[in-house]
Write a structure and sequence with these properties.
Helix content of chain A: under 10%
Number of helices of chain A: 0
Oligomer: heterodimer
Structural class of chain B: mainly beta
Largest sheet of chain B: 6 strands, mixed
Radius of gyration of chain A: 13 Å
Shape of chain A: globular
Shape of chain B: globular
Order of helices and strands of chain A: EEEEEEEEEEE
Structural class of chain A: mainly beta
Order of helices and strands of chain B: EEEEEEEEEEE
Radius of gyration of chain B: 14 Å
């Protein structure tokens, strides 16, 4: 089944403790993105990647890192999480520049 | 700069009533617009895109370039339509197209 998977689905952590949210897609898509979803703000792009080893900042990249060492994986790294990063995070992928975007199930992160 | 505006945070209608979810955009190029839907506890999924001009689950959306709008409509709302709806614009960037989302509108269909 074609899909985007994320792990973990739920995470509660403390300020400053490094964490990684994994994202994987099995559709051989070139383009992958990370978004955060906050009430009243909708979906905001954090980082995106056009292909392996090619990444760039989205609209709200501060406090986040990403890597794209393999085509299928696009982990999101929070080196020193802070409470304002408490949010619902979505990974997404699509083929080419204008194809349909497929979303992961979301990761609900709480930073205390 | 590209921007998508959904003016209503919440739209509440009765079952069987018509629905119109508003979306306005700002973009200097030729727009490509989408509606995504997120049902409770599910991932976002594509509902429809303007270039396909199709009706999905009874929903339609027409691109009006003069009014820079892409409103989502359904003549008779059903309870299963209750969800969060996002309007999105595909904006051309140097390295490919970027999807810009609006803030979303929660649709509640009451029985």
């Amino acid at each position: 089944e074609a899909q985007v998977t994320q792990n973990p689905r739920y995470l509660i952590t403390v300020t400053g403790k490094k964490l990684t949210v994994t994202c994987s897609q099995n559709m051989n898509h070139e383009y992958m993105s990370w978004y955060r979803q906050d009430p009243g703000l909708g979906l905001r792009q954090i980082y995106y990647s056009m292909n392996v080893e090619v990444t760039d900042k989205g609209d709200v990249p501060e406090g986040y890192k990403v890597s794209r060492k393999e085509k299928r994986n696009f982990p999101l790294i929070l080196e020193s999480p802070s409470p304002n990063q408490t949010s619902l995070y979505f990974c997404a992928s699509r083929s080419g520049t204008a194809g349909e975007q497929y979303f992961g199930p979301g990761t609900r992160l709480t930073v205390t | 700069a590209q921007r998508v505006t959904q003016p209503e945070k919440l739209l509440s209608v009765f079952k069987g009533a018509p629905v119109e979810l508003k979306c306005n955009y700002s973009y200097s190029g030729s727009p490509e617009l989408f509606w995504y839907v997120q049902y409770s506890r599910q991932r976002l999924q594509l509902l429809l895109r303007h270039i396909s001009r199709e009706s999905i689950k009874g929903f339609t959306a027409d691109l009006n370039k003069g009014e820079t709008s892409f409103h989502l409509k359904k003549p008779f709302a059903q309870e299963e339509d209750s969800a969060m709806y996002y309007c999105a614009l595909s904006a051309y960037m140097e390295y490919g197209n970027k999807l810009v989302f609006g803030a979303g509108t929660i649709l509640r269909v009451k029985s």
